[in-house]
Amino acid sequence: MISSMKKRRQGRAKPLVARKQWSVAMCINHWAMAVCIVILIISGLYIGRPLTIGAGETWQKFSMAKVRFIHLIFGFILTALFIWRIYLAFFSRFHADWKDFFAWLDLKSVYHQVKFYMLITTQMPEHTGLYGTLQSAAYGFLLLMVFLVVITGLILYAALYRAGLGGAIYMFSRHLEGVFGGLAGARLIHHILTWGFVLFICVHTYLAFWYDIVSKRGTISSIISGRVFEHSDI
Amino acid sequence: MALDEMFSNQSEELRACYNDLMKRCEVHLDKMHQKLPPPKDRWNEILNSHGVSRRDFLKWCSIMTAALALPPVFTPKVAKAAGMANRLPVVWLNLAECTGCTEALLRTAYPGIDDLILDTLSLEYHETLMAASGYQAEECLSEALEKFAGQFVCVIEGAIPMGLNGKYLTIGAKGKTGYEIAKEVASKAAMVICIGSCSSYGNIQAARPNPTKARGVAEALKISTVNIAGCPPNATNFVGTLLHYLLFGALPALDRLGRPLWAYGKRIHDFCERRPHYDAGEFVEEWGDEYAKRGFCLYKVGCKGPYTYANCSQVRFNQGVSWPVMAGHGCIGCTEPDFWDKMAPLEKPMADHAPLPLAGVEATADEIGLGLTMVTLAGIGAHALGSVFRGVGKEKGGEE
Fold first, then answer.
1. Considering only alpha carbons, which residue of chain B is nearest residue A11?
2. Which of A141, B138, B177, B323 is most exposed, with the fewest beta carbons within 10 Å of its own?
3. CATH number of B268-352
4. pTM for this one?
5. Is B197 in the A-facing interface, judged by CB distances under 8 Å?
C-alpha cells in the first residue's frame, strides 16, 4: 500500500529538491542593504524635516547632529555594499549575474510577464536567467537609484567635511556638483530618490510574498537560505 | 618678519612656493607701478581726508592678506597694491540690472577701506556715477577703450538679454544693445569681472520663464569671467579680487562657476553663527515665534545656507555690522546660479521644493512621494484581492 502511494505521488509530482540560487555573499549583501536603506530612509526624512527641541540648553543637545551622524555612517556602509554588489555582479564565484539584469531586453517575455502580473493569464512565465523580465528592470533601476543616491550623498558630505576622506572625495565631487545643479540640486535629487526607495520597498516586499505563494518555490526563504525548491526529474 | 624665518618649521616645498610667489608679486607690482596711469589723488591723502589713519589702513591690509590666504609677510605688498588701486582704469557697465550692486558697494554709513577703494577707483565710465550723459557719455567710453586698451578692468553689472537679438536692452544715444556694448568692451579689457549674480549667472532676469532670454556674461559672450556672485555681492570679495590682480597680475583661483575660491570656497552653513542651534536640533518653526526670539537655526524656515557657497557668514555686510542670517532671515542662496528656480520657495526647507518644473504644479517632493506610496499600497491591495479572486498559483486538480 505504501509503495502504491509512493508510486501515485511520483506520478502526480516530481520530488522537491533544493537548488542553490543565491550565494551566502549575496544573501548578506541583500539584508545588509535592506537594513541600511530602511535606516537611511527614516533618518533622511528626519533630516529633511527635523523636530525642534525647545527645552534645555543648546550645549546639552545634539539631536540633529546625532541623526546626521547615523545617516552618514549608514550612507558609507551603503556605499561599500553597493561596490560589493557590483563586484558580485561581475566576479561572483558562484554566479556573476550582470547579464541577468538585461532580461527585459526580451520584449516578448516582458509582454507575457505583464499579462501574468496583471492577472490576465495564470500561466507563469519561465525565467531564462536569475530574474524575471520586469524584475531585472526593477533591480537594475534599484542599483541605478543606489548609485545616484550614493553619488549625491557623497557630494553633500564632501561639501562640508573637507579633511581626510571628505577632502579626497571633494577633489572629484566639486566637479560633479554642476552635473546635479549645485548642492541644492543634489540635495533635491537625494530627497526625491528617498521616495523611490520607499516605493521600491512596498512593491518588492509584496511581489516577493506574492511570488512565494504563486510559484511555491520558497522565494522568501531563498534569500535567507540561498536555496529555492524545484520539482526534479531525479 | 622674513619669509625664511616665518616658514622655518614648514616644509622646503612650501617655503619655495611662497618665495616664488613673493618674487612674482614684486616683479608684477613694479611693472604695474610703471605701467599704470598716474593717480588723480594720492592714496595717503584720500585716507587722511576720510579720517583713516595709516595704522587702520595697515590693519585692514593684514585682514585682506589673511582673507586672500596669503602669509602675513605679504601685508606690505597688499598695502602697496591697495595704494595703486585708484590708478587702475575701470570701465563699469550697467546692463539688465537694478543698480543694487552699485548701491550696496558705494553707499555706506561710514566708508571702510574697501569702500574707499571702490569710491576712488579710476572709473572711466559708470552710468550711475558719471556726470556726462548722452553722446558725451558715449565719447567717454570710446575714449577710455582707446586710451587703456588691454589695460583696463571691465566690471559688468547686470545680465545680457539675448532675446529679440538683444533688443530687450538698448543703452545710450546710439541705441546699442547690451550684448554689443558688452562684447566690444570685454574684447578690449585686461579682464572681465562680473559683479553680482545677474552678470554672473543671469539671476532673476534669467529665472523661469525668462522671456528676454537673459544670460550671464560668461555664457552670453562665451568668455571666461571672474564672477563675484551675490545679490548684492560683498565689497570685500570685489576688492580682494582687484588686489589679487594688482599683486600677481593673474586671476585668483576660481571654482567651476568662476567664483574666487578664497571668497566662495566654503558654504554659508559652515561658518554660520546659528550653526550650533542646527546641530542641537533647535529650529525656528515660524516667523516671530519663541524660537526666533532665542536665535535658533533658520533651516526649517528655508535657510539655504547648506547649499550656498559664500563667505557672508565670515565677512558680513555694511562694515561687518550684520548679514541676513544674523538679521533673522535665512540665506536665499543668491550666490548660486538659478537660485530663484532651484531654491524656491525661499522660506521653506528643501523638502518643500516643488520638483516638477510645470506651471501650476506646486506639489512638493514629499507630497508626491506620499501620494505615490498611497496609490502603490492601494494597488497592492487590489492586486492581492484580484490574485485571490483569479486563483493565481492554485494547483489545478489532476492537471500537474
1. B400
2. A141
3. 4.10.480.10
4. 0.88
5. no
